[in-house]
Design a protein that fits this description.
By secondary structure, the chain is mainly α. The protein folds into two domains: 86 residues, Recoverin, domain 1, CATH 1.10.238; 104 residues, Orthogonal Bundle (Recoverin, domain 1). A two-stranded antiparallel sheet has the order 1-2. It has a two-stranded antiparallel sheet with strand order 3-4. The longest helix is centred in the C-terminal third of the chain and has 17 residues. It is elongated, with a radius of gyration of 28 Å. The termini are far apart.
Length: 230
């Protein structure tokens, strides 16, 4: 009859090899598995404000932009403000910050830096860009005015359409010499539609179309400028 050997307790080496993998240290995996923390997000907000303040203002905004490596005038900041649904340019309230950053799943500088490419890509999507463009009007205008002053409008149009619209330089020159002191929301929205639908040579422009007078006058001015230059 075969001799049954008595089983000895496993050696230390065997014990190590049989430990389940999930019991090993997760320190290297923290970034991949860490979930959003509202408490940490609020503490992060207060790094740019006083401990009892619930509004992040221009000074804190400048520091925030410095920390994430983005100039305050960079268009990606408009995209971020859109995701936070911020109501006033240069300011984030704690409620806006917490709601928006929660949706973005960002509770620290590193996480929002990792979202910058996503925020830039929103501007390349035609539907999202239109939403951001329309949002920019209410975001940038003075809240006690229904229209946007012309200087703010020119700055925002430069940011949004300066690299997208081939006629933008001419349109900006037209605004510089025009009688207009403000831009209303209907004009603002139609400028985008005009830039998207009218050919650079204006051959598909319909004089009897429903464009605002602002754009009709731009077309007349632009044609005069071309005639003068030729």
């Amino acid at each position: 009859m075969p001799i049954r050997r008595k089983r000895t307790s496993p050696t230390m080496e065997e014990s190590k090899s049989k430990r389940p993998r999930h019991s090993q240290s997760r320190r290297g995996q923290t970034g991949a598995t860490e979930v959003f923390s509202g408490k940490q997000c609020i503490a992060w907000f207060h790094e740019y404000t006083g401990p009892d303040e619930d509004v992040l203002g221009p000074e804190g905004m400048e520091k925030f932009c410095e920390d994430i490596g983005v100039e305050p005038e960079n268009i990606v900041m408009l995209s971020l403000a859109y995701k936070l649904d911020a109501k006033s340019m240069g300011f984030f309230t704690l409620a806006e910050w917490l709601k928006g950053m929660s949706e973005l799943q960002c509770d620290c500088t590193n996480k929002v830096q990792q979202k910058l490419e996503f925020l830039r890509n929103l501007l390349e999507d035609p539907v999202q860009f239109k939403n951001i463009y329309r949002y920019a009007f209410d975001f940038a205008r003075d809240k006690d005015q229904r229209s946007m002053d012309i200087e703010t409008a020119k700055a925002m149009l430069t940011l949004l359409l300066g690299k997208k619209w081939s006629l933008f330089t001419s349109f900006h020159q037209y605004l510089d010499q025009s009688k207009y002191k403000v831009i209303n929301k209907d004009q603002w929205c139609n400028i985008l539609e005009f830039s998207r639908s009218i050919y650079p040579d204006l051959t598909n422009y319909d004089e009897d179309g429903a464009w605002p007078v602002l754009l009709d006058e731009f077309v007349d001015w632009y044609k005069e400028q071309r005639q003068m230059s030729s």
